[in-house]
Design a protein that fits this description.
mainly alpha; two-stranded antiparallel ribbon; 24 helices; 405 residues
């Protein structure tokens, strides 16, 4: 039995691969026994692992000509992608490309596999070849821009996003979304807002992340009300999009609404316990709210995930040794000295005396003070910062001794 094109296009693309293969090969003896498999594949009743068996059986039949082998390898590669084996898929596509080096479908499929593995330079090479073969296809430029963005080269990426949009400005939302994200990476948040709005107007299969991106851009330019509305819409469409909670939490911190911010960050860590950004934000809120033990625990969680993070080591030392254990002593010292500015600067500098932070190269801010800053400190508190031994006082030895011990 031959399947019609109508049957193929109405079936799931994943499960129709072997059906496509049968049509391309024709009714040869090598695949006669797979006609029934092809019919069932098109109905979506056979899982991908059985596709793999079917494709390999065809390839191993040793009766295929080169054109038939290309189609079989193409089907095998896509089945491997479905099963999450991108490396094997790249190998299958590569074998097919050796036979048909200018077959556009093979080149694009391999480029997508490369992108999935974050092998951006290899993806760029394939997409460059695709553009040479068919320069009028707008998505090729968008995909190439996406690969440059993956390398962190957003300025180069923007050139390809611009070209993709110039060639087809109304049909695809993806180039606008990608360009918007690169614009945000370069600090052009207002332009990014335009792109995300345009993507929403065109429509996309999943607009929740687009609302999140636009909300983040709104927040960056100080448009807090529309930012909160976009985050709300993103979470309405996709309640599991916890990155929207994270970005909304950051905005709520800036709006000094720590209670709602805490709720957002706690939602994130409830679903992703190893989310360092949310754990750090909660530690900072705990620290501000005077919940020092909770802050220390959160820093311990973060350091379990990133043991050599100097910022987290420094912060934990700061809270544990100087806010948690000595907060009363510092309050007394501040009142005695009457120079809160000096004490605050000292509190920033002191944690780097913590041996575990110093062991990975954290340096105290006092080592970078200029002579003019030192003179300013002398006039404020009759004390001077010294890189070698901390603080040397001129007037109140008891105060300085209390701070250092």
């Amino acid at each position: 039995m031959r399947l019609t094109l109508g049957t193929i296009f109405t079936a799931s693309p994943i499960f129709a691969l072997v059906a496509v293969l049968v049509i391309a090969l024709g009714s040869t003896p090598a695949i006669a026994d797979l006609e029934a498999v092809a019919k069932t594949c098109s109905s979506g009743n056979i899982p991908p692992k059985e596709h793999l068996v079917a494709c390999r059986k065809i390839i191993d039949s040793e009766t295929l000509n080169q054109k038939q082998m290309v189609v079989a390898l193409y089907a095998l590669g896509h089945t491997q992608l479905v099963l999450g084996d991108a490396e094997q898929a790249i190998d299958s596509f590569g074998q097919a490309i050796e036979i048909a080096p200018d077959e556009l479908g093979l080149i694009l499929s391999r480029s997508q596999a490369y992108l999935g593995l974050r092998r951006f330079k290899a993806a760029i090479a394939d997409l460059t070849h695709a553009i040479v073969l068919k320069p009028e296809v707008a998505p090729f430029y968008s995909n190439r821009g996406n690969a440059y963005a993956g390398l962190g080269n957003h300025r180069q990426a923007l050139k390809y996003f611009d070209e993709s949009i110039r060639r087809n400005p109304t049909e695809f939302a993806q180039p606008y979304i990608r360009r918007g994200r690169s614009l945000m990476a370069t600090g052009a948040h207002q332009k990014a807002i335009y792109d995300f709005t345009k993507a929403i107007e065109i429509g996309h299969a999943n607009l929740a992340p687009v609302h999140m991106y636009r909300g983040t851009a709104y927040a960056q330019v100080g448009r807090n009300a529309p930012a909160l509305e976009d985050f709300r819409e993103a979470l309405r469409q996709s309640p599991d999009l916890v990155e929207a909670n994270f970005h909304r939490g950051n905005l709520r911190v800036r709006l000094n609404n720590r209670a709602l911010a805490r709720a957002d960050f706690e939602t994130v860590v409830a679903r992703i316990p190893n989310h360092i950004g949310a754990q750090y934000a909660l530690a900072a809120i705990d620290q501000t709210d005077g919940k020092y033990e909770s802050a220390i625990k959160r820093y311990d969680v973060i350091l379990g995930l990133a043991p050599n993070n100097p910022v987290m080591l420094n912060n934990r030392c700061y809270v544990k040794r100087y806010w948690g254990e000595r907060v009363r002593r510092f309050a007394t010292a501040t009142s005695l000295c009457g120079c809160g500015r000096v004490i605050r600067l000292f509190l920033i500098a002191v944690p780097s005396r913590c041996s575990e932070a110093a062991s990975i190269g954290v340096q105290s801010p006092i080592t970078t003070w200029s002579s003019r800053q030192i003179q300013t400190m002398r006039s404020h508190c009759m004390a001077v910062a010294m890189p070698t031994n901390g603080w040397v006082q001129q007037r109140s030895p008891r105060l300085i001794s209390r701070l250092l011990n």
